[in-house]
Here is the input.
Amino acid sequence: MPDREDIYWNSFLPAFFDRMSLQMRKNMTDIVSDYDLTSAHAIYLIALKLQDGQTLVSLSRFLDLDTANTNRVIKILKEKELVYDDRKTDKSKKFNIYLTDSGRNLADRIMAGITELNNSYFEGIPREDVLQLRNTLIRILRNMNLDIDSYMGSKYEDPFYTHLHIIPPEDGYETEPIRLSQKRQNV
Here is the structure.
């Protein structure tokens, strides 16, 4: 039987991650609040900054979010002239979504703001520990969703989680997820 500390930790962990996620989303919303947007909008701008010119379906898969939600968010971003599409007519079903210059500038601002926030979260923590945390979180995600490897290894999509694996760490630190991304490239 687990000791009391394990029971407390295991019971607290979901609340801990939820609290962290809530605070991170609030901080991201603060970055885009001048535009009357939320963190839900910001992640789409980031996704398009990472990979511009996606269809609604590919953007949804990239973020692992519902296509109906993507449709709603993109509509708002279009109204705010942060994104546009390459439809030939209003009734065209197949089109790609692109950032406007304003959208690209805002995405840059969001990414710079998030980088600044993340740097403050990890202040005083050695780079090796940050990399270990990233790799541990990826392993936890894999353990929680047995299909994550096939999702990340898809030759048809380039989902957001893949970027966690292919962004090379600085200072020459080799990590397991980096080796997994190299394996993916051979698919």
